[in-house]
Design brief:
By secondary structure, the chain is of the alpha/beta class. It has 19 helices and 16 strands. A five-stranded antiparallel sheet has the order 4-3-7-6-5. The protein has a five-stranded parallel sheet with strand order 9-10-13-8-14. Strands 1-2 form a two-stranded antiparallel ribbon. Strand 5 and strand 6 form a beta hairpin. The two termini are about 45 Å apart.
Length: about 475
Amino acid sequence: MLCYSCTIYEAGRLWSVVISKEWDTLLDLISDGIIITDHEGTILKVNKAYERIVSIKPKALVGKNIKEMVKDGTIPESSTLKVLQTKQEVTLFHENNEKDLLYTGTPMFNERNEIVAVVNCVRDMRELNELKRTVTQIKQVNQEYREQLDYFHGRESKIDGLIAESREMQHVLTLATKVAPLDSVVMLRGESGVGKEVIAKFIHTHSKRVSEAFIKVNCGAIPKDLMESEFFGYETGAFTGASKGGKPGFFELADKGTLFLDEIGDMPQELQVKLLRVLEDREFRRIGGVKTIRSDVRIIAATNQPLEELVEQKKFRKDLYYRLQVYPIVIPPLRERTTDIPHLIEYYLNTFQERHGTPTRINPEAIYILSQYKWPGNIREVINLLERLVIICSNREILPEHLPREITDCLHLIKPVHFKEQLEWIEFQELQRALEQHGSTRKASESLQMSKTTFIRKLKKYEGRFKMDHK
């Protein structure tokens, strides 16, 4: 309800409303069009919104009688006149080619129940409806984005061991996400155990081939004399000992799906030639066969070897090297993404807990020590160590003294002050993870076998310190 600062006076039964400049400013802030008349229909005030909605300048309205304005067609119709006739609130609707206008006139009375002014509000319903449609469309788009995010999160959760909290691994996932929807060949580079297969599965899971097969082949684990038959299959009688009815190879098994060639640097040169031909011609024949088989396979290769040196040494074909290097992704070793280590530890401890039925937690100091270790075996080494620790820790808590000597020896390089700060930082992360996972301080403190008071005290202490330091 509009409030006005006004002085009402009587002179020969003529009522006027004097509206202060402050209320003029207030009226101009209202998004609805406002037009105010006195008891005879003379226009006293028009706000900016009214000018915008009806496209008439205030100078052409103020001081004129609204009855005359309607009569000469300046204003199509007026609820004000009907308010003056009925002494009741009146609503009118006017439609033209450009706008759908809703007029609502409201009378203002004095103590003798006489109308002293009429306030008329105007809304462009077409504009309002368009705004509603826009808001609805935005909500629909947001819902679609939420559904897509939920979908992709669900797909990511199915890829065991995919941990990407560090900036380095976030960059890897960004590259993988860009190439996933395409059919381009991808080359994954990185040390042994960094998670090349996990990234290959991520790419496959986010590709249009997700519903088809993902076939992994370790090129270094297949005997050379069996490689061709394993890759391309064979027909009955192709060689001594060939199975009756023949056998499909990897390319047939992966048809319309993804073929992951791990340790591609170990592939014999004879097979390199045939692989290159399949990549270029998209077809092959089984051993002993005459029928040409079309190949619809997406190739993802991986290696921990310096292929460039192998090319120089004539151990790897240069033309195949360039054919596989369409989209290279380098996965950094664990020592270069140490912020992932606590999350990897948490993930695999939960995995082994489910597998062995042995709930095991890890001491923050032990997490810190493990975060300082260089991990020459990368994630594979982390997995093996954690499973061993879960088995040997009878008290269900992994402590620093349970860690192998080669890992604890790294501590002599760490300054005591730095060690204490890092240890508290690790504990702060553990408190935050517990609170996020369980949703309340009571449940979070119980999960860490800590009193609620201690949990809250430590959380506040670390928040005050680390949140300021990490802004």
